Every structure is written in structure tokens, then in C-alpha cells.
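Need C-alpha cells for this chain, all 78 residues.
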Amino acid sequence: MTESEPPTPNPISCGLPARQFMNRTFMTMAIAMGLDGAIMNPLDCRMMATIIAAEALAGRDNFCMYDLKPFRAGMFEG
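Here are the C-alpha cells for all 78 residues:
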């Protein structure tokens, strides 16, 4: 998903500026509170990187193995 796509209905960031940033921040907070599944766009690289980092920081990724592989693949670039 790109920042220039038209807004879609979303109960978290409905109509707010910087919608994608709000969604990524909410996802991080939800993971910290125990979320283990979500309906989201798996092609949104920034969201996927946010989820991977949040899982590592929440202690759900022993030795950061799920963090290192995407990092080495360049997923956190740009």
C-alpha cells in the first residue's frame, strides 16, 4: 500500500492524516498488549517491518531470528 492510495474504511484511523503511520503505531501497541493475529495487507512492507520489530521487542522472537532474515533481505530499507 502506498501513501497516495485513496483512503479505505478503517476504524482505527478513519479520515485522519498520516493514516498509515497511525495504523502502524496502533499495530505496535496491539502487539505489545498481546495481539497475535490481524487482518492487514501483507504487501505493505512498512507494516510488515513494524510487525516484525514489534514481535521482537515484545519478546516473541527468540534470538530475533524473524527479525534478522527480513533485515538481511533489505525489508527495512527505505
